[in-house]
């Protein structure tokens, strides 16, 4: 079903003005009305055809388009602030940078730091966290590009001359 829950409308992810996404669960009848009012769409909030989920499922594209048009005008933080004020279940969709800097993720120890070529790199920590044997990454894996010859030569069948040309061009 992609970024929605099939048969429950509206529930989905919506892109905001800052390029980030929010997830909105406005699928209860009263929640739906609050969501549409927050989005400035009283017409859809009060439309009798959309009073129950069955009617909203029939008009899902129209509803999703209205929500998407609204979130596209707001940064994700502002959208979430307005949704919280309207008591509409919602949350941010995180990218990796968001996860690494989130204080809750940090407090839970969800990332650990390893060294790659003498430089620190944050990677996902070992889960679950066990009290007596919490686990850690001993070896983050081979150096980037260390298998290029096997991949390009062995799997892709490039000749030694072709590999030398690619290496000379800085491809790897």
Q: Any descriptors?
A:
alpha+beta; elongated; 3-stranded antiparallel β-sheet
In short:
The chain is α+β, with helices and mostly antiparallel strands. It is built from 9 helices and 5 strands, in the order E-E-H-H-H-H-H-E-H-H-E-E-H-H.
Task: Describe the 3D structure.
- It is a single chain.
- Helix content is 41%, strand content 15%.
- The chain has helices spanning 29-38, 42-45, 53-58, 60-71, 76-85, 96-101, 103-107, 148-155, 160-168, and strands spanning 11-15, 21-25, 90-93, 111-116, 119-124.
- It folds into three domains: 11-93, formyl-coa transferase, domain 3; 95-140, no CATH class; 142-172, no CATH class.
| Beta fraction | 15-25%
Number of helices: 9
- Which architecture of the largest domain does the CATH hierarchy give at level 2? 2-Layer Sandwich
Tally of separate domains: 3
Which helices and strands occur, and which strands form pairs?
Elements: E1 11-15, E2 21-25, H1 29-38, H2 42-45, H3 53-58, H4 60-71, H5 76-85, E3 90-93, H6 96-101, H7 103-107, E4 111-116, E5 119-124, H8 148-155, H9 160-168
Antiparallel strand pairs: 1-2, 2-3, 4-5
